[in-house]
Amino acid sequence: MSLSNTLYSLQNMISSQSNDIDEKIDRLRKAKNDISHEQNLLLQEIKQIKQPDLGNEWTGKRANAFDKEREEAYNVMQKIGETDYSDYQRLIENKINSLEIEQSFLNITKAIAYEAGQLVEKGEDAVDELANKINDIQRRVL
Q1: What is the pLDDT of residues 59-76, one digit of tens each?
Q2: Residue 133: which of 106, 115, 121, 107 has the closest Cα?
Q3: CB-based contacts of 24, cutoff 8 Å, min separation 6
């Protein structure tokens, strides 16, 4: 395989990997937004757990047990709404950051591939430098 064919193949591989990462980032951002929306809905709706306020009209063992159960349900839902959803969003954000770092690495590799493409245009005068660039690109993407 000639150097220019190898370079073309590597450029396609870089482009494909870059597109895959972009798609993953887009899906993760959408998931994070969806979770945020669900979190907001949950935090609004859990207020309904404490409704209606029974006040002094309902007393006794059953009333106390009911209020205790209702308070526990509220606390569990509050924890889910405030902590668990936020934890999921942080995990997603960490993954997005990781993918963005990977994308930056590919962008640098893409720039090297562009430089190598410029060397192809120079012809035989730049064959050794082109071979070195291609080897560098292969180390980065393979």
Answers
A1: 888 888 888 999 999 999
A2: 115
A3: 99
